[in-house]
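Record filed below.
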Amino acid sequence: MAKRYFGPALFTFLRELRENNNRNWFQVNKGRYEAAVRDPFLQFITDFEPHLAKISANYVADARPTGGSLFRIYRDTRFAKDKSPYKTVAAAHFSHKKADSGPAPSFYLYLEPGNVFAGAGVWHPDAATVNRIRDAIVDDGEGWRQASLCQAFKGMHLFAGETLKTPPRGYDPNHRFIEDLKRKDFAMVVPLTEQEACTATFMDRFTQAAQAVAPLAHFLTDALGLAW
């Protein structure tokens, strides 16, 4: 049976947090955060697990409040110029079970007022990981072509992240996938909306989006020597 997880209260809380990003306000409104954001998201993660298992048995939906799939609301401000203590988004990552052992792709759900999306890929990898992915693209061009096209989802899926301005050193500047070889991030997103996130069919929509970008996650998983 269809179930609604998120409501307008989630986005209202995040909008207000954006305007009141301080510890006093958050402590007064912590109950709202738990009721409108944290708890519904943890339930969503729990219920997504069987859908994720059908995509890949090696990716994990971990509904622990701390250390699991849900990103912390607290920002690490130790080395940041912006000392705002809280993130103004709610997000989760569904990572490979070997992610603690090294670089690995993830599936993502990102909820921010005016910016909701699903996605998959490797975000801000180190240089060695980037080169492993680039080498895999060179070695299996047809596999990359199919993975990068992915399955259409409402006609929309697009790459995100940073790209080099010039071809990377050691790679053919005339390679047919040179624009992909120039990527520094290998992630694809499927744009969604606040309205969709607040419906009882959102689990199905997110699952469909994850399935749409699964070919990219599969290619990257293989490229990094992990089991799909």
